[in-house]
Amino acid sequence: MPSGYALVHRSSLREQIARALRDDMVTGRLPAGERFTVRDIAERYGVSATPVREALVELAALQLVEIVHHRGFQVRQQTWEDFDEILDARRVLTEGMLASLPGRVPDGFPEGELTTVRRRAMDARRAAEAGDVDVMVVCDLRYWWELNRLLSNRRVADFADNLRVLAWMFLVPRVRPFAPLRGHLWGRQMELVEGLQRGDWAAVAEEMRAYHRFAAEGVAPLRERSAPSSS
Fold first, then answer.
1. Structure pTM?
2. DSSP readout, 177-209?
């Protein structure tokens, strides 16, 4: 039986590989539809096959990759219908988290609990203003994970994070041709944090509704471009 240290080390390596694969899929370095084997990924990252296989099985459970019988794995391909379902799931999840806040923290979150999410908010806003897609994706994921962990718990934050990863996997290749996206990315992260500190739950709810509208309306031109021509 492996020692406790060996189990922890292997688990840590699996997590690192899963994170690296996720980052490559979100940024398009591993594009939707790309097929690969455990050996391909092991050689890509210079690691052994076992933690790679474990990482890929984990990502398959999260629906980021699909298992192709006798052929390895494939980065999941998504449709606009999938994307719409992701946006709807995010909205419903957020509404549920916000509904509990007035009872949990009626006077708002103390500054000490907002330190990390405030820092992430500043990073995300700067990235949005710069319009760099790759930097924005990283900052966006970090910001929302910290925010959702604050609003709920780690399990909910992880679930919401996976929805955001799927959304970015779908969007990044569609927005990259228009980069830099300066002025076209949501940049009100700090306003949301300030509302949480004040305990202004009506303002927080309105910021979130505005964010969801922004997300839905912002992709409309992309949706139109991908629609089949009627001519």
1. 0.88
2. GG---TTSS---HHHHHHHHHHT-HHHHHHHHH
Numbered ranges of CATH 1.20.120 in the chain: 80-226
Taking CA atoms, 55 is separated from 73, 121, 171, in Å, by 12, 29, 24
Rg (CA), the chain: 19
- pLDDT tens digits, one per residue of 147-178: 999 999 999 999 999 999 999 999 999 998 88
With beta carbons less than 8 A apart as the criterion, state whether 137 and 27 touch.
yes
Pick the CATH number of 4-75 from 2.10.270.10, 1.10.10.10, 3.40.980.10, 1.20.58.220: 1.10.10.10
Topology of the domain comprising 80-226: Four Helix Bundle (Hemerythrin (Met), subunit A) (1.20.120)
